[in-house]
Design goal:
By secondary structure, the chain is an alpha/beta fold. Helix content is 31%, strand content 19%. It folds into two domains: 12-131, Chitobiase/beta-hexosaminidase domain 2-like (Chitobiase, domain 2), CATH 3.30.379.10; 137-453, Glycosidases (TIM Barrel, Alpha-Beta Barrel). It is built from 15 helices and 17 strands. Strand 8, helix 3 (151-163) and strand 9 form a beta-alpha-beta unit. Helix 7 packs parallel to helix 8 (304-320). The radius of gyration is 23 Å and the shape is globular. The chain binds ligand TNX. Ligand TNX is lined by residues 260, 297-298, 328, 345, 374, 376, 387, 420, 422.
């Protein structure tokens, strides 16, 4: 295990030199988790073409996935926590142990990366890994509003993030350019609000069954979906679908440009809150995870007074639905509610006043500094797509910082890399902006700060290029990495 190229780098690696395990065609798998066992078998069968039957228990198993709360002598990992695992490889077998199925899943991701990308012999280096995440919230966001992407594309994105032990998919489901989740009580959100996107294409909208499929697919990979309904700004698609949500009662035209800050729900009308309650009720019912993201960014067409009054009415609705509020950090000055999470997307050295207001109220933070982890920023001036308002973001820029030193006094729940899609219309374009920066953010969110070092990371990351190619994933050949 001396030269392993696992990303995120595990918290602790103890190589057993001269020891290794090689899968043979008659290897079997036993697992205490049917789901994780099946996931591993299907990944390994695809690569090895071995049968790899799943058998009941038994020490003879070549690969054994055990749910086991006792971490033995793993010391500082206690009982492995909610997501930790231990992976032991000796000459006879591979054993993954964890307290939860999520932990087993992460052990399996590590095991898959220890194997060759393609072609046997299927040898795993001997030794022991004990691993657990630094942050509980490790996410990526996909903006399906500016350009709509269907269920298969979202599932492919979930596959990508979960391979790197990320556990949150934030879906930006509404914005000026399109509404992307069907709401039974307000059907024209889908049919009218969903029929547009940047550049004038057809747009689209998830049915509730589509959304449920995404949630299930994510859950099978231990990914929590965080749905975002942005408000009171970024709402032109809803305002276009329903005139009564506008202060003057007149629906604006559909919007297919890329400006921000021009739309607002009518914060003084009661119907606005009926609308929000109906929408959030249906979205909450479809969402098993604890969070509802209510946006709150760039409400430049709402006065400060109206904005604060609006949030005082909306945030409690989220609580009544049994969910926790997440909002962009502009919600900081609004009176907090229990458990609230503010998502920081500022840039530059001085933390902004709004995020400090959130910290002062005891909100937890998800960090998405735009000049570090915005996946929609260009890598270099030559990157054919992407924006540059927060600067250029190389892989090293995304990787080389310490989340605990960004905002004084912050309680950091985790890290999220957002992919806004004003300039992103195809899967190839998603890939180009996502790889290799997403694995950099994943390691930032998972691995202990003192286990991360750019040159070491760069070398490990470079080994993943051929894996992505085999999976049909394109990437930016960042010259500092490859
Ligand atoms: C700012 S980040 C926005 C988005 C844009 C993004 C483009 C945030 C909360 N608001 O509306 O898509 O910049 O980078």
């Amino acid at each position: 295990m001396n030269d392993i190229t696992v990303v995120p780098v595990p918290a602790r690696v103890e190589p057993a030199s001269g020891v290794s395990f090689t899968f043979s065609a008659d290897a079997v798998i036993s697992s205490d988790s049917a789901g994780v066992g099946a996931y591993l078998a299907s990944a390994l069968r695809a690569a090895t073409e071995f049968a790899l039957p799943i058998v009941e228990g038994g020490p003879q198993s070549a690969i054994s996935l055990r749910l086991d709360g006792d971490s033995g002598d793993s010391g500082d990992f206690g009982d492995f926590g909610d997501e930790g695992y231990e992976l032991v490889v000796d000459a006879e077998r591979v054993v993954v142990r964890a307290r939860t199925e999520a932990g087993l899943f992460y052990g399996v991701q590590t095991l898959l990366q220890l194997l060759p990308a393609a072609n046997g012999p299927w040898t795993v280096p001997g030794g022991r890994i004990v691993d657990a995440p630094r942050f509980a919230y490790r996410g990526a966001m996909l903006d399906v509003s500016r350009h709509f992407f269907g269920v298969e594309v979202v599932e492919r994105f979930i596959d990508a993030i979960s391979r790197y032990k990320m556990n949150v998919l934030h879906l930006h489901l509404s914005d000026d350019q399109g509404w992307r989740i069907a709401i039974e009580k307000w059907p024209e959100l889908a049919t009218v609000g969903g029929a547009s996107q940047v550049g004038g294409g057809a747009g689209g909208c998830f049915s509730q069954a589509d959304y449920a499929r995404i949630v299930d697919y994510a859950a099978a990979r231990f990914v929590t979906v965080v749905p975002e309904i942005d408000m009171p700004g970024h709402t032109n698609a809803a305002l276009h679908a329903y005139p009564e949500l506008n202060a003057d009662g007149v629906a604006p035209a559909a919007y297919t440009g890329v400006d921000v800050g021009f739309s607002t729900l009518a914060v003084g009308r009661d119907v606005t809150y009926d609308f929000i309650r109906d929408v959030l009720t249906e979205v909450a019912a479809l969402t098993p995870g604890p969070y509802l993201h209510i946006g709150g960014d760039e409400a430049q067409s709402t006065s400060t007074e109206d904005y604060l009054a609006f949030l005082d009415r909306v945030q409690p609705i989220v609580g009544e639905l049994g969910k926790t509020v997440v909002g962009w950090h502009q919600i900081g000055p609004a009176r907090t509610v229990s458990g609230r999470v503010a998502q920081y997307w500022g840039h530059g050295p001085a933390p902004d006043e709004d995020v400090l207001a959130a910290v002062a109220q005891g909100d937890r933070l998800v960090l998405s500094p735009a000049d570090r982890v915005y996946l929609d920023m260009k890598y270099t001036r030559e990157t054919p797509i992407g924006l540059d308002w927060a600067g250029l973001v190389t892989t090293r820029t995304a990787y080389d910082w310490d989340p605990d030193r960004l905002i004084p006094g912050a309680m950091v729940l985790g890290i999220e890399a957002p992919l806004w899609t004003e300039t992103v219309a195809t899967v190839a374009e998603i890939d180009l902006l996502t790889f290799p920066r997403l694995p950099a953010v994943a390691e930032l969110a998972w691995s202990p700060q003192d286990a991360r070092e750019w040159n070491d990371f760069r070398a490990r990351l470079a080994a993943h290029g051929p894996r992505w190619t085999l999976l049909g994933i394109g990437f930016h050949p960042d010259p500092e990495v490859f």
